[in-house]
Amino acid sequence: MGLNSSSMLQDQDVEDIKKETGFSEKQIKRLYIRFLHLDSRGCGRLSREDFGRIPELAINPLNERIIDSFYFHCSDIDEQEGCNFREFMKTLAHFRRCSKRGQNPLNTEEEKLKFIFSIYDIDKDGNITKADLLKILEMMVGVSIGKEQLELIAHRTIQDADADSDDAIDFEEFKKVHIEKYTSLNSGANLASYMQGRFSMG
Questions:
Q1: What GO molecular functions are on record for this protein (predicted)?
Q2: Span between the terminal Cα atoms of the chain, in Å
Q3: Do 87 and 118 share a structural domain?
């Protein structure tokens, strides 16, 4: 069941979402109430404008890309209609902290990395290019850094991670850089806490 405009949250929906996302029943029901409050059209789907009213997103420099992520698995028709609650929860699962009782398939470090990679891979070609990085950097810093300096940062980032010298970063190269970064931190920071800090809805 997709939880579309004609359906309400049923016990079976809760159980299915628990299995898919790892959220508890209490968390699912709380987020469903918030979902309904955001649903300005009352149709069981969130538009991009609805997402734009989420305070956590409004202050995030990558808000447009994060909003895009809620539609990564939607067809063009579905995207026009909006994001239903089940897809909403599946996307939020990537931001959930890993449970001590075990990871959910959507919440492994591998899946978290794939999700972050998809945020950076703007043209969805399976590689992060200099053009992709420039767009991300521009979103993050605005006009506080000149274009020439941003291009230099993007070039060096590609150069440092591009093991096969094809002027782009594929997922395996991206993963290698992140693993090295987070395993080298003495503070105990990890990918789960990083993503929790990017966007949280409870």
A1: calcium ion binding
A2: 24
A3: no
In terms of Cα–Cα distance, which of 77, 18, 15 is closest to 45? 77
Chosen domain end from 95, 128, 150: 95
Q: Which residue has the higher pLDDT, 107 or 22?
A: 22
What is the value of pTM for the model shown?
0.76
Q: Is residue 150 within 8 Å of 134, Cβ to Cβ? A: yes
For residue 192, the model assigns a pLDDT of 46
